[in-house]
Amino acid sequence: MSNPNKAIVLSSGGVDSTTAMAIARHEGYDVYSLSFQYGQRHACELEAAQKVAKAFGAKEHLVIDVDFAKIGGSALTDDIEVPKGRTEQEIEKEIPVTYVPARNTIFLSYAIAWAEVIGASDIFLGVNAIDYSGYPDCRPEYIEAFEHMANLATKMAVEGQALTKMRTPLIQMTKAEIIKKGIELGVDYALTHSCYDPSSEGRACGQCDSCLFRKKGFKEAGVEDPIHYKT
Hints:
The protein is α/β, with parallel strands linked by helices.
């Protein structure tokens, strides 16, 4: 049976997913953190996700191996250069090579499977359609379609036990608004990692799209970014 106090939270260890986890905890959910080792060049994000899960008292932090590197096609999983120093206009112009084909569809499929096993009907994810790189699987219409599909695909929904709800509390917020919300909820952003192309020591490059959005968000929020950058 579904437990209304349980929620799956997809966690990359970044600003958005960490804020989404803070919101889930603030709303009274027992958090089950879900992360993925998918062949990403910035796998140090998993260390951040582990720290975040511990900080929020997650009941469990599950890391699943999915080898996107075998498929390739993304600068995050293949031998393709990560774009650096792009302007906002350039970022908005096209979907960048850091897009990982079908990533959220695959991640969310694991999430609904785990949710059904533990009896959770709520799945939180930190997708954002304002300060983002234009990834198609972060848009509201995609989330709505996946939620509809999930409720056709699971025993829990078909037998009337509970419907799966995709919770996207940040989807219409700017990065600055997200950071302000996180600060309000006591998030320690020093635990987080955002960079697509970190150094071998895990230090953020400061120039990839993700770093640029992060720095812009902290600046507009009037909050000092607690992490260190290479540049």
